[in-house]
Design brief:
- The chain crosses the membrane at residues 12-32, 44-70, 91-124, 148-167, 179-199, 219-243, 255-279, 310-334, 346-367, 387-409, 430-448.
- Its main location: membrane.
- It holds the Pfam family SNF.
- Keywords: Membrane, Transmembrane, Transmembrane helix, Transport.
- This is Sodium:neurotransmitter symporter family protein.
- With 449 residues, the chain is mostly helical.
- It has a single domain (14-448), classed as Hydantoin permease (Orthogonal Bundle), CATH 1.10.4160.
- It is 77% helix and 1% strand.
- The chain has 18 helices and two strands.
- A two-stranded antiparallel ribbon has the order 1-2.
- Helix 5 packs across helix 7, helix 5 packs antiparallel against helix 14 and helix 5 (95-126) crosses helix 15.
- Bound molecules: phenylalanine.
């Protein structure tokens, strides 16, 4: 017998769910991760494969997560449990919710440190130090554990504040202000790049594919990026789905969120690469692309001291609307089981993320190691990413696809998407039963070997 669970709020207004889910999807993954991966993986060929992955894996899994979440109205653990019990399947499917919460805690621990660096850069870009290069500047920022910890604390605290305020007061209100602002700032940067940067060069880099250098790792990297960017496989979208009003259409909403997420990644590329090429910077410089290259561009350009901080405010806002969704599945679970109040749950999980984040903050300096090619790496960050992003997220996504494709009662599924066109439904069933789980399994296996 299942006990009655505490009810959460529902988002009011047609656009709130779309805004919140887009806020979750759009973050460091799009604006920091996508351009740097497009840069290192050779540009347009990567972009094309990425788009394919969004359509073939991302959108079908997003439909599934929203559907399971909305149907039960509970946090991912209980949503999976309820759907499994109602379908006559084992209640052990709730383990998918648990792995999601573990993944979320690990992701947020390092996400907050990187987002903290973005917050720090708002001020660095506003008053640049002309005596040092931007890569020396970046080195200085990450060499101080105290500095990283202070900004990590500030970012974690902001996340905690919003999440503890609850669904309607906190997240709902926040995204209504944040997302349009984000779109506005990004468009501004693209227009700036079109007028002042090497825009045509950027266009051909991003959209004229050269398949000569495409290997299996390009596919793997593009698939992984699609997964992380759409916030899938760890319960964030499922948790938000629980607050989606019943009359809203799941399938078209998933397409909207997927398109907006992709649009922002591409706009980020269009904002960043014209500047990179105009200043003869290296597009393949890796994870430091945003921090090192853009700062040097901002330092040289007219009004850079204004545009630079605007860019890093944009990045921090995007990171914040993602981080609140990473925290949500765990907080919603503890609150609905009434183990703790919503505020207490948010505090407990935030402290946990903050403590684990100390590893990433010190991994940049005290515990950094030098690899065989002489590059300095952060072993803690790499381990956290490996476990959460490369193992737990794909595993969670694959299990959700297998559950909804092979174990969940089809009449329960159809009840949630009554208006769906039969052809689209069969297409989705095919992708969720075969294409998505097999592709994710492929990513997973190739990461092991
Ligand atoms: N999608 C977010 C980004 O692109 C990160 C994220 C991952 C959010 C997992 C929620 C869950 O930055």
């Amino acid at each position: 017998m299942q006990k009655t669970l505490k009810k959460h709020g529902t988002w009011i207004g047609k656009w709130t769910f779309v805004l919140a889910a887009t806020g979750s999807a759009v973050g460091l993954g799009n604006i920091w991760g996508f351009p740097y991966k497009a840069g290192t993986e050779g540009g347009a060929a990567f972009v094309l494969i990425y788009l394919l992955c969004i359509v073939a894996i991302g959108v079908p899994i997003m439909i599934s997560e929203i559907l399971i979440g909305r149907r039960s109205g509970n946090s991912p653990i209980n949503a999976m449990k309820k759907s499994a019990i109602d379908s006559g399947a084992s209640s052990l499917w709730q383990l998918v919710g648990w792995t999601g919460i573990i993944a979320g805690v690990l992701i947020l621990s390092f996400y907050s440190v990187i987002a903290g660096i973005c917050l720090n850069y708002i001020f660095i870009a506003a008053s640049p130090n002309e005596l040092i290069t931007s890569s020396e500047q970046f080195g200085q920022v990450i060499s101080s554990p105290t500095n990283l910890l202070i900004w990590h604390t500030v970012f974690m605290f902001l996340t905690l504040l919003i999440v503890s305020a609850g669904v309607e007061d906190g997240i709902g209100r926040m995204v209504k202000i944040l997302m349009p602002l984000l779109g506005f700032l990004l468009l501004f940067m693209v227009i700036y790049g079109a007028i002042n940067g090497a825009f045509l060069e950027a266009l051909s880099f991003l959209f004229a594919p050269d398949f000569s250098n495409v290997g299996t790792d390009t596919f793997l990297s593009a698939m992984g990026q699609a997964f992380f960017s759409m916030s899938l496989g760890m319960g964030s979208i499922m948790a938000y789905g629980a607050y989606m009003p019943k009359e809203q259409e799941i399938v078209s909403t998933s397409f909207s969120v997927g398109s907006l997420d992709t649009l922002v990644a591409i706009l980020a590329g269009l904002a960043i690469f014209p500047i990179i090429f105009a200043f003869n910077l290296e597009p393949g410089s890796g994870p430091g692309l945003v921090f090192v290259s853009l700062l040097s561009a901002f330092n040289q350009m007219e009004f850079g001291q204004l545009i630079g901080p605007i860019f890093f405010i944009l990045l921090s806002i995007a990171a914040l609307s993602s981080s609140i969704s990473i925290l949500e599945p765990g907080v919603a679970y503890l609150a609905e089981e009434e183990f703790l109040t919503r505020k207490q749950s948010a505090i407990v999980i935030s402290i946990l993320c903050w403590v684990i984040g100390i590893g990433t903050a010190t991994g940049f300096n005290i515990f950094s190691v030098v690899d065989s090619s002489g590059e300095s790496i952060n072993p803690f960050l790499n381990t956290m990413e490996l476990i959460s992003v490369q193992i737990l997220q794909p595993l969670g996504g694959m299990l959700i696809a297998i559950f909804i494709g092979w174990f969940m009662n089809e009449s329960l599924i159809k009840n949630e998407i009554p208006q769906i066109n039969p052809f689209l439904y069969s297409l989705w069933r095919f992708f969720i039963k075969y294409v998505a789980p097999l592709s994710v399994a492929f990513i997973f296996i190739s990461q092991i070997i």
